[in-house]
Amino acid sequence: MLTLLPQSAIPLVTQIVDGLRRLIDEGALRAGTKVPSIRQFAHAHEVSVFTVVESYDRLVALGYLVSRPHSGFFVRKRAAVENREPAGAARAGYRFDSAWYLRKIFENRHLTMKAGCGWLPSDWLFEDGVRRSLRALAADNVDLGGYGDPKGFPPLREFIRDAMAEQEIAIAAEQVLLTQGSSQALDLVARRLIRAGDAVLVDDPGYANLLFSLRFAGAQLVGVPRTPQGYDLPALERLIVEHRPKVFFTQPRLQSPTGSTAQLAHLHRVLQLAEKHDFLVVENDLYVDLDPEPRPSLASLDQLSRVVYVGSYSKTISPNLRVGYLVAHPDLLEDLAQLKMISGLTSSEFSERLVYGALTEGRWRKHLKALRERLAEAHQRVAGRLAKLGFELFTEPKAGMFLWARHPALPDAAELSNQAAESDILLGPGHLFTADMAPTGWMRFNVAYCGDERLFAFLGHRIRTLL
């Protein structure tokens, strides 16, 4: 029997996780038993759906529950109780579940070596361009009263229209909606297109924040296996036929976490399947400005008939300014603009003006060129160091921010990440990036943060200890 104490100093999520772990450890909930649905549990215990989502996510990450599409959550078959961590240990140190990932990275950021994070160091970003833009904005004595244009600062939308034209995507400025980073763009699309219980295709592994958001929305995540060339196309077609998805959220270029880029033939096949089976594709092209090679996108091949295109300046100018955008078919774009107004009125025109000034002050392209070269050098250095330690690399993109790697002596990246955090190192354990959050040895490395020798000393020590 699980009893929650709302007045207790112990968070409700911790109470639920520890309580269900105890019931499973004691045999009160046997392997294969279906636990109450998220909404049933929330109603029965008078807690929020979000609290239950977070609790179940933790239990999946810890290996106590397994999520089955269209069926719910079930008790996972586990090893003997005496080999498990004590139930209270989750409060004693770091636990790399989705809640830890979001809170510790985006609230505290206190770990010195951020080898698993998802942003660039501040001195790699366009700080000088932002400062010059800020000085120009202050000198112009701009009137910043009111809420601004619902779709965002018009000159920046026109700039994006022209940038899209360079990528052979023909749009009007009215088809551009500025957002608070790509996260808001993806959230708006998800809320417009998805209802609880809908089957949604996602890259597997894929963008961790998106996966967490879709779980919270009640979507049934269907992972499409990622390959170094793009997608496992036979698996993709089989999953489409089986689950009849409404949307495919994907990141074809320099993908997080794998760094892979889908081949042109794969992009064509995705669009053929979308047309045949009548679903939309949301292309998260977050790292387009980090790509040294001009190449087609899903949006350029489709011209926004079935594709919604998402971009951001967080990775190249400043994540703190929170300026992203989405581009879509005019009818869908108007719905998304209305939803943006309902949920948060307008985005920050001040931030959008700052970004526009940085983009147009004359040094933007030079900054991108230098950034791409710096990342290429970091890729070569970090890939070499990981390979020397015996890591298997998923692919070697030589561009973008990430390497996806694993070592045969380190089968549980979550356990390694807990140990690393105690040594002031933030790693990116692979289960956070998977659709089912199953344990894995894969890890995400951000090459821009892997220059500290202590990182490789830690990894080498752990490998030697286990061999």
What can you see in these coordinates?
- With 467 residues, the chain is an alpha/beta fold.
- It contains 16 helices and 14 strands.
- It has an 8-stranded mixed β-sheet, sandwiched between helices. A 4-stranded antiparallel β-sheet has the order 11-12-14-13. Strands 1-2 form a two-stranded antiparallel sheet.
- Strand 1 and strand 2 (72-75) form a beta hairpin.
- Helix 1 (12-25) packs across helix 3, helix 2 (38-45) crosses helix 3 and helix 5 packs across helix 13.
- It is globular, with a radius of gyration of 23 Å.
Q: What layout of secondary structure does this protein have?
A:
Elements: H1 12-25, H2 38-45, H3 49-61, E1 65-68, E2 72-75, H4 98-108, H5 127-139, H6 154-166, E3 176-179, H7 181-193, E4 199-204, H8 208-216, E5 220-227, E6 230-231, H9 233-243, E7 247-250, H10 264-277, E8 280-284, H11 298-302, E9 307-312, E10 324-327, H12 330-344, H13 349-360, H14 364-388, E11 392-393, E12 402-406, H15 413-422, E13 428-429, E14 443-446, H16 453-466
Helix pairs in contact: 1-3, 2-3, 5-13, 7-8, 9-10
